[in-house]
Amino acid sequence: MCGRYATTKSEADLGELFDAVAVAEAPAASWNVAPTDPVPLIRVSQRRDARVVDTARWGLVPPWATDLRAGARMINARAETVATSPAFASSFQRRRCLVPADGWYEWVRTGKQRQAYYMTAPGSVLAFAGIWTMWRGETMTCSVLTTAALGGLRAVHDRMPLILPRERWEPWLAGGGEPDELLRPLPEAALEAIEVRAVRPDVGNVRNNGPQLTTPEPAAEMEGTLF
């Protein structure tokens, strides 16, 4: 799963990168985004007939939920079932988005401790496949799609975000389309740009934030075993 990630670009930066109009101020840069936090996303606005940079609460809240707390359990949607899940299918068909990220975190247990890892493509912004909805017409919420981990990333976790390259942004945002094509994972060769970086355990505490969370640290028991 993807339960923590970093996203640090301003709405102006995101607008330029994704050729989108900012309709909401992006949340403050965060190197430790946690479930229910506000996050930036890119979606198509029918009213504007254009891509827009918007803000949503991370954790999709289905329309039947009685309160927003339900979203804490729905931060991820599995690519294998998103098209048929009662909670996600409607958004998958009509309300898809891109969730920009600098990188994401996972943990590997080493004996009695857990080693944190940060996956990133230095110098680039990753576009996670996402879906969104409006809860009771007033709160936008979203989920990040995950797929089976590929290549060396399997040594960190068996799941990873579904990352979309630039040429797949337009069909993803357009709505409709063939699920098999929309949900296909990146070729393993494309993952060579992703660096797997051991980092300090501080990211495990949601109160910690800042670029120091992504600084490489030695991982004594795992170093050199991921690839």
From TrEMBL:
Region (Disordered) spans which residues?
206-227
Q: Its Gene Ontology molecular function terms?
A: lyase activity; peptidase activity; single-stranded DNA binding
Q: Which GO terms describe its biological process?
A: protein-DNA covalent cross-linking repair; proteolysis
The UniProt transmembrane annotation reads 116-135
Q: Where is the composition biased (Polar residues)?
A: 206-215
Task: Give yes or no: UniProt keyword Calcium.
Answer: no
List, alphabetically, the SUPFAM superfamilies matched: BB1717-like
Q: Name one Pfam family in it.
A: SRAP
Alphabetically sorted, this entry's keywords are: Covalent protein-DNA linkage, DNA damage, DNA-binding, Hydrolase, Lyase, Membrane, Protease, Transmembrane, Transmembrane helix
Q: What is its EC number?
A: 3.4.-.-
Q: Does the keyword DNA repair apply?
A: no
Protein family? Belongs to the SOS response-associated peptidase family.
The name this protein carries in UniProt is Abasic site processing protein
Annotated source species: Pseudosporangium ferrugineum
